[in-house]
Amino acid sequence: MKNKGQALVEFIIILPILLLLLLGLIDFGNIIYKKYTLENDLEQIVNLVKRKNEVGINTYIKQNGITASIEPKTDTTSITLTKKIAINTPGLNKILGRTYQIEAKRVIPNEP
């Protein structure tokens, strides 16, 4: 009988740690997933930049909640996309902040 009480106390001590680890893994998984989708968004923006479709670029950026920086230079164009992600795990949001910013960059050659 005494062992059952001891196991319950140990479980209660370990449970919050396990929950924080699980929630942290979920948040990190969300960051990785959003980074992957941002890379796909970057591919779409690169195609629109190559076609010089300003209206399409602006529409795509607004629809997907992305911040974009497109800097044309003499022989290349630098494209940077950023997006903010909410961090929900207690403790992890103190380390990373309530919002975490992800970024995707690409430099493409200008076509003549």
Features:
112 residues, alpha+beta, 3-stranded antiparallel sheet, 3 helices, 25% strand
Question: What's the short version?
Answer:
With 112 residues, the chain is of the alpha+beta class. It has helices at residues 2-50, 54-64, 92-96; strands at 67-72, 76-86, 99-109.
Ranges with pLDDT <50 over ≥5 residues? none
The overall strand count is: 3
Q: Percent helix among the residues? A: 55-70%
Q: Biggest sheet: strands, sense, closure?
A: 3 strands, antiparallel
Which outline best applies?
A: rod-shaped
Radius of gyration: 22 Å
Q: What structural class should be given to the helix and strand makeup?
A: alpha+beta
- Strand neighbour order, sheet with most strands: 1-2-3
How far is it from the N-terminal to the C-terminal residue, by CA? 82 Å
| Mean pLDDT score | 90
